[in-house]
Amino acid sequence: MKLVVLILYFAVLVAIGIYCRKTATDVNGFVLGGRNVGPWLTAFAYGTSYFSAVIFVGYAGQFGWKFGIASTWIGLGNAAIGSLLAWIILGRRTRIMTQHLNSATMPQFFEKRFDSKALKIGASIIIFIFMIPYTASLYNGLSRLFGMAFNIDYSICIILMAVLTAIYVIAGGYMATAINDFIQGIIMLFGIVIVIAAVLKVNGGFLAALDGLARINDAEVATTPGIFASFFGPDPLSLFFVIILTSLGTWGLPQMVQKFYSINDEGSIRKGTIISTFFAIVVAGGCYFLGGFGRLFSDEIDIAANGYDSIIPAMLSKLHPGIIALVVILVLSASMSTLSSLVMTSASTLTLDFLKDTFIKNMKEKSQVLMIRALIVVFIAISSVIAMIQYKSNITFIAQLMGVSWGAMAGAFLAPFMYGLYSKKVTKASCAVCFIFGSVLMLANMLFRSSFPTILQSPINCGAFAMVAGLVIVPVVSLFTKKPPKEEVDASFACYEQKKSIAQKTALGD
């Protein structure tokens, strides 16, 4: 049953990739789907790029174990801040200004908004360095579930996922990715609900499971009775840092923000906001809610030997084979959708923002598309090798890999990008300072973690700090550095002042 479901699933993905190849003949079509993607595809592309095996296996397992049922707040924060507010605050302005500036990537936005090629090259280098460890982390969680369901070697899992993702992304570009994301998103929505119901049923239902969780005590974590079934859990401050990293972080991640570039009209923004938020409530809220019951299976889990990434697979291992097949497809869907988004972002950024014009002058349109396709293969191959090395040497947990990557990119880009959309007073120097601060801080945290203050030794806490600090750094540095020429800034913001005729049902009056 599991094998048949997998084969059918793979066949659909490849068929869609081949079907969409006619839309991927130029850079605009391959990278942005011609800026003509509707609300459902855009919202699901956003959600499936957001939530992967890193969330389902890594974060849900680790933070469910640490915070108990209170870990559900992380998923709700992802929905409210990472989806709803992100769409409201960034969606419309991103779509308008990026089209006005003719930018297809985040580094191109920085170059054209601040008239600085150095910012473009700096941003592309940061993306290149920190996107790969995040990409590598996607394979780990998937391998745990494949090993549990099929008892096959981890290397085969990696190769299978890498090859299939490469086929449909290279063939059909962004449109193939968006359509597949929609299918994968549907699987994730229904799958997580069914899995939660099955796990709760094994433990006697929701109230019985909650009662069992309240009876668990861990003196090393807290001595308060029932702490793992409480509203805020045993460590509210650490819980807050996780919410900030995983929610606010999406505002500065290239693979997330670039989803707004391709929206086709105003109605798509309104619908996409609702759809994306609902998706996050169900999928993210469901994942962390499920992880919150991990301690009910403590007699089957050896954290010291197998790490936090073994928690979710252990919770699911005794379910019905049909449900296990669904879980494998669910996590495979989440991982492949995120992987396709990451490699598309990495390859297009390196081609359009680093190689083109900098090293290869007058690069033709067909050559750009060919180079992006070639680099997709390279990025998938590199991340696959890193994933194998990481798994065999047990360097770190999924959550730590993701924390470093998210912290560095969001810490570097969030504030310059958001302020760049709204304020004419932001300077290129403030952007450069924020780039350096966010990326160097996370590199230092990775290499010299023990030298950091205790609260910032965790890459998750440090990443959240980098994001919030950037929101202060950019306006403060802008006050004391050279202001951009008024005519250039006015030209960038002119797009917001263009007059449009709208229907009376939208606004009364002339």
Overall description:
The chain has 510 residues and is mainly alpha-helical. The protein has one domain (2-394): Sodium/glucose cotransporter, CATH 1.20.1730. 73% of the residues lie in helices and 0% in strands. The protein is built from 20 helices and no strands. The protein has helices spanning 2-19, 27-32, 39-50, 53-67, 72-100, 106-114, 117-150, 154-202, 206-214, 236-248, 254-257, 266-291, 303-306, 311-316, 321-355, 365-393, 398-422, 428-447, 459-480, 486-493. Helix 1 runs parallel beside helix 15 (321-355) and helix 5 (72-100) packs parallel to helix 10. The N and C termini lie far apart (62 Å). The mean pLDDT is 85.
The best one-word shape is globular
Name the poorly predicted regions.
Answer: none
CATH architecture name: Up-down Bundle
N-end to C-end Cα span: 62 Å
The helix tally amounts to 20
Quote the average pLDDT: 85
Q: N-to-C SSE series?
A: HHHHHHHHHHHHHHHHHHHH
**CATH T-level topology:** Sodium/glucose cotransporter
Alpha-beta content class: mainly alpha
| Proportion of strand residues | under 5%
CATH homologous superfamily (4th level) name: Sodium/glucose cotransporter
Computed over alpha carbons, the radius of gyration is: 22 Å
Beta-strand segment tally: 0
